[in-house]
Structure formats: C-alpha cells, structure tokens
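User: Hi! Is it possible to get a structure for several chains at once, not just one? Here's what I have:
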Amino acid sequence: MTIPESFVPESHPRYLSLIIREKLVKGFRNGIVVPEGLIAHGRGEAFDYIIGEISRSFAVEAEKVAVALMLLSEKPVISVNGNAAALVAEKLSELSEVLNAPLEVNVFHWSRERVKKIAEYLKSAGCKNVLYAGDAEIKGIKHFRRIVDRRGIYSADTVLVMLEDGDRCELLRESGKKVIAIDLNPLSRTARMADVTIVNNIIRAIPEMVNIAEELKTWSEKELRDAVNNYDNRVVLRKALESIAEYVTGVQV
Ligand code: ATP
Ligand code: MG
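Assistant: Yes, the chains can be modeled jointly so their relative placement is included. Here is the combined structure:
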C-alpha cells in the first residue's frame, strides 16, 4: 500500500481548511512551526469561521491602505513568523519583491537554529531579501520578539506584522513606527493597537496584497497619501465586528 501525500480528499467540504492544517503540521515536523503556533492557528480558524471564510470589504479596504502606506514608506519591512512562512512563503516572497520590502524572520519561540530554518525556507520559496541577523533589540520587550535585525525592523518606518503579540505591536508604535497587522481576531490587542488592521486570513490577504500592490504602483504619491489620510482604523474594526454579528445572526438554524 502506498501512503498518500495528503489524507484529505478534494471532495471534502472543508478541503481548504484541512489542507491548511496539513501545511502547518508539515511545518511543525520540519521545525518551522512550534506547537504553540498550531494552537494560535486554532484561534484564527475560529474567527475565520464566523467571518465566513471570505475576504470582506473591511479587509480589502485595509489591505489597500496597507499597501499604500508600504509604498509611501522609506523602509517598509515584513515581519514573518513560523506559521506565516509555512502557509504563504511564496506569496510573501512576491509581496516582498513588489513592495521592495525585506522579509524579516521574527519569532516568539526563538532559537538561532529555528530562525535560520525559517529564513532558508523563505529563500527556497523565492525570496531574495530575507533578514534574520538578530543583531539588535527593541527596548521594553522582555520576550524573544525583541530580537530584530538592525537593517530591518530596528530601523524600519513601517512594519507589516501577522500573528503578532499585542505588547510588541504597542512598543513598535511607541518607537515611532507605523504598524500594519493582519489578524483574524478584531478583538485582539494587536488588532486594536495597529495603525491599520487587516481582519483576514493571511492565506487570502497576502495574495490579495500582491495584486493590490501591482495596481497601486501606478498611482501618484498624492493618490496614495489621500488613501492613507482618509482611513480610520477604528471605523474598520467596528465594521468587522458588525459584519461578524450580522453574519452569525443571519445563519439559519
Ligand atoms: P494579542 O496579544 O494581540 O491579543 P493573541 O494573544 O490573541 O494576540 P496570539 O496567540 O498571540 O493571539 O497570536 C495569534 C493571533 O493570530 C490570533 O489573534 C489569531 O486570531 C491570529 N491568527 C491565527 N492564524 C491566522 C491566520 N492564518 N491569518 C490571520 N490571523 C491569524
Ligand atoms: Mg498574544
């Protein structure tokens, strides 16, 4: 008997969700994802369920503004952890290229070996600009997420984060940086702390941001600035919560 590569039949009603789990488990076996990352994914999945597992208009609006902000920034950086690498390495590489922003490996469960593994994985997915030197620290953070790259997050003016901790998000902002967060949980501290919050699954948000970046690269600086200036993150978070309430109360039982 040959053992199949995947145990999930394509006809399964939750095919995509199960394939994503398989990707994370594979990442776990390869030393990229930590067990805690699998739990964090579970929290994300639960929120995705009540969002409806699609990109809602409040997410697309935030993705547009996020891309505009990255294009206007002098030193934009994309912070990548184990789950993000395991799920969307190729698309993160494309986003890095189109935005001219490095991917920086930054993890809570830190070891030199794990950081190197994630960096190698991102490179093998096509990314030419991966930072992971860990030669600087963000003051005020006690856990390992403080360890950053001098040429990356340390000196960045805008940081795109995903599956982030609320406390680091707050400190990045306090150090004068703009923070864009992708987080399925609109109630998390990260979601409430960020300048721009994309309430969406990274498996949808990152590919969408690549396409948006191709389009917004043709915009003038004024058009980009107007998009950023007209944006209100609190309104977007409110829309996310209202949308969830509307969706779950509309389900026929
Ligand atoms: P905070 O400290 O900001 O309140 P948290 O403690 O709620 O965060 P963590 O476990 O630190 O959350 O990080 C996981 C976060 O990432 C969760 O809010 C979860 O909803 C979100 N998340 C998990 N998987 C995904 C995904 N695939 N796409 C987007 N967000 C995700
Ligand atoms: Mg947390």
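The pocket of adenosine-5'-triphosphate (ligand 1) is lined by residues 40-41, 43-44, 47, 162-163, 165-166, 182-185, 188-190, 201-202 (CB under 6 Å). The radius of gyration is 18 Å.

User: Great, thank you!
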